[in-house]
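re the bet — no i am not wrong, look at it urself. input seq straight from the record:
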Amino acid sequence: MKIAIIGAGGVGGYFGGRLAHAGTDVTFVARGQQLAALQQRGLEIQSALGNIHVDPVQVTSDPASIGPTDVVIFAVKLWDLADAARAAAPLIGPQTALIAVQNGVEKDDLLRSAYPNGSVLGGVCYIAAHIASPGVIAHIGRMQRLIFGGNSIHVQPLLEACMAARIDAEISRDIEKAMWEKFVFLVGLSATTTATRLPIGVVRSHPRTRQLLLEIMQEVVAVGRAKGIGLPETFANDRLNFYDTLPAEMTASMYKDLERGGRLELDWLSGAVVRLGEALSIPTPANRVIAAVLEPYAVPEKLSI
C-alpha cells in the first residue's frame, strides 16, 4: 500500500510516522522547517505508547514527485484544505482513496467538489499531538484513534496497515455520524480550553465552566439532529462523562494555535455550529458567544488595537 500524507504536523506526523515505522510505504508532503528537519534528522514521535524514530523519511514539498498513490490523507489545517486538494492532483489515480482527518463536518464536501468522481472516504481521528520542535511530534496521553469508512478497495488494507502499526483504527458503517460524534467532542474542547486559556482538567472541575462545556456540546447535538444525523439526545452528557477520563493537561489544537499567535480554526468549529444553526433555525447562544470572543484572534494579522 502506497500512502501520501499531506501535512506532517501533529496528526499527519503521528499517524504517518507510526505507519512508516511499521513498514508501510508512506511519503509526507511538508514544507518549511518541518520539511527540512524530516530530511535532515528524520521523524521522532514522543509518546507514552512508545517513542519511535523514523530515519530516513520519505518527504517532499512537491506532490508531483510522488506519483499516484493508493490513499491520500489530508492532515493540513482546515483553511489550507482547498489548496492542498488542488495540489494533490498528481497523487490521485482512478482508484485513489481520499481521507480528510481534519476537524469539522464540512471537509468532505470540499474534497468532493474538487474530485466529484473520486473515492472520498470520511475520516475521523482522536488524538492530542503537536509539533514539539521541527521533526519532533509530542503525543499527549494514550488516545490515538483513527476511523474511516466508505466504498474503496483500499479500506481493508488501510485498516490492516494501521493494526500493524498499533494504531487504534476501525472501519465505520456510518462515517457521517462518526464525524459528528467527533465534532461534538471537539467543538466543546476547542471552545472551552481556548476561550479560558486553560486545560480541560480545570474546565471540567469548575461548575460554571463544566456547564458551559455541556451547553456548547448540546447545541452541536441539536444542530446535528436537525440535519438528520442519528445522535442520541443525551449524547452531550455522554461526552461530558468521557471528558472526565481525559488527561487533565489536555487542550485543543486551537488553544495551541492561539498560544503561538497562529490562525484559529474557529470558523469551522464554533463558527460552523452558529452558521449551520442559523440555516436550520436552531439557536446556538453558547457557541455564538465563543465565536464572538475568539473572532479577534482568528486571523492574527487582522488583530489590531
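see?? The beta strands are 2-6, 25-29, 43-46, 52-54, 59-60, 69-74, 92-100, 119-133, 136-149, 168-171. told u. also The chain has two domains: 2-173, 177-302. so pay up
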